[in-house]
Amino acid sequence: MPRLKFSGSRLFVLDTNVLMHDPTSIFRFAEHNVYIPMVVLEELDNGKKGLSEVARNVRQVSRYFDELMQSANEEQIQKGLPLGNSPYLPVEERTNGLLFFQTSEIVSDKLPNGLTTSKVDNTIVNIALALQEDNKEKLVTLISKDINLRIKAKILGVHAEDYFNDQVLDDIETLYTGQSILPEDFWTSHDKEMKSWQEEGRTFYQICGPLIKTWTVNQFIQIEDGSGFAAIVRDINDQTATIELCTDYTSPTNDIWGITARNIEQSFALNLLMDPEIDFVSLQGPAGTGKTLLALAAALEQTVELKRYNEIIVTRVTVPVGEDIGFLPGTEEEKMNPWMGAFTDNLEVLSPSQSNDDWGRQATQDILQKWLKIRSLNFMRGRTFINKFVIIDEAQNLTPKQMKTLITRAGPGTKVICLGNVGQIDTPYLTESSSGLTYVVDHFKDWKYSGHMKLHRGERSRLADFASDNL
Question: Does the keyword Protein biosynthesis apply (predicted)?
Fold first, then answer.
């Protein structure tokens, strides 16, 4: 049986889930050779139907393959299709990599008898083994998002790796937090040419010094020396920065819809949420840090009282923690209600009456129906939100592409809030470093109309705090 010989130093065999996860993945290895088993094409064909994000990705992969094969004949397909000529790659990134498809049966005699090739994963491992046997001078690598397939491949002697190109950061600990703790001697080295002034009741400082180059716009800075100094960076120009003293939302005089911040991080978050000049806010932190409550309070204050926005739009990914309860009857809002328990719980806290009487419950329902609209992610494409306060909950379960789809729905006068905890990801094949929430935090951190705050302290109850620390 003739075997395929490949040029170049490396050969990558792509699993179906990699293509489903990122349709452009075939171009991410363009300086090397990429091999697509026939069973992968069959799995792609099975997954092309529907309106889900995965189905859209599958159809896009098929279009990429079709365009690469437009002018290719059978001989060219056998020799490999040039990936470097792809119109989807910038000219400076085009290289000599080739795309190969399986055109004949490939069987390795190293596959254990107990592993039947009727299973797709075993077939892919079998093909990678055979390619490795016939190209001993090259490194054959199986790329898969499936951990178990990678484990199986490594046991059988096949080099296997996860797909890393979608990862925003190598280490999630380096993700932008939105704040910086200044040394206690900060003013000694930064007050030489300091200027201060007030505008409309707001206090500004213009300072220069060595730490300025480490700041970003809308980052919070504070000194933990008991002085209570906390400010937000408004502008950076060469060696000079303009900072503004923060509003202290821990004070009862600055309450938002009846609530006050319980710590400095929540106060920073409210500064971002209440700032009409900031169009995009992301809040990241574990359960109980107040993300939903703060966002909802700011939304009600600015929609109902200040009239900055004419409606509150709430959406989230419908990924269950336990077993799925199946299809839900009713309208779009009725179907979404079970997923919005966090918002209805917080609305009860924020409602005008804390009693359990009918009037209090009716007041909560009135707020829900008049100001707050619950929308499903499935119907977001093509929409434009004008003068809306949009809250995206559980954003860590969104892919970067889904996040882009949602945020680009924002029209004039709309503010978008993303809430989530990258430590609680329920979507398959997403990790802390490839989550859509991580993606937007990293990409928006230098934009002057956005802000981010990582919350650390839980504020639910002493019981919840103890359970979080000890269970």
Answer: no
Is 256 part of any domain? no
- What is Dmax (Cα atoms) for the chain? 82
Residue 51 maps to a domain: yes
Q: Would the CA dihedral through 429, 432, 437, 440 be positive or negative?
A: negative
CB-based contacts of 76, cutoff 8 Å, min separation 6:
none
Span 234-258, mean pLDDT? 91
pTM above 0.85, yes or no: no
Under the banding of pLDDT at 50, 70 and 90, the label for residue 190 is: confident
Of the candidates 245, 279, 306, which is a domain's last residue? 245
User: Which one has a higher pLDDT value, 268 or 96?
Assistant: 268
Q: Decide which of 68 and 277 is more confident.
A: 277
The pLDDT of residue 2 is 45
Is the separation of the CB atoms in 309 and 413 below 8 Å? yes
The pLDDT value given to residue 321: 36
